[in-house]
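Technical appendix A lists one of the benchmark inputs used to test multi-chain prediction within the project. The record comprises two sequence entries:
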Amino acid sequence: AQSVTQLDSQVPVFEEAPVELRCNYSSSVSVYLFWYVQYPNQGLQLLLKYLSGSTLVKGINGFEAEFNKSQTSFHLRKPSVHISDTAEYFCAVRTQGGSEKLVFGKGTKLTVNP
Amino acid sequence: NAGVTQTPKFQVLKTGQSMTLQCAQDMNHEYMSWYRQDPGMGLRLIHYSVGAGITDQGEVPNGYNVSRSTTEDFPLRLLSAAPSQTSVYFCASVKGRTGELFFGEGSRLTVL
């Protein structure tokens, strides 16, 4: 069965600083990878996804992530964050050719301070 | 375009009571699922369905029941509520295996 580890539960940064949110996964088969964002008191929305092809994936709001198969990682990055990026971010994995079940990490709370 | 609609948004129950969380989607998605979100635990899959008439258990199914009589609706039933079921519940749907999950806005349940 697949699993997802988000290495940091909380990440505080200052506005306009770069940020990286780390995600590692475990699976014996090929996977699809996703990052979701949850703003306070809201549901989750998709930031970006990796299905195949280029390992660098660009998403909404200036975020990007890089799939590294050898390190089984899918870290999320943004070169300059805004106050409005304060939210909880979830990494998720689904196996290729398997069921549609999506397995989530425990989340990383990003707090952007002025 | 409503997407995924959950009702109610808030509910308070007493231990032992039963209730149903409703979920409806208007995107003709085959796959629907229920997750619960607890602080520090991320989202955990309760039950899912790959189409009308087909359901299966996720990671934390105990105490919950589901059915899928139509493509649109996927209700989650709490048979005898317990304080451990206090949580925020999210319904989600997706079309196909590579599509994104579309989430409802969540239902916050408190069991006293």
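The radius of gyration of chain B is 13 Å. Chain B touches chain A through 24 residues (CB under 8 Å). Comparable benchmark entries are summarised in Table A2.
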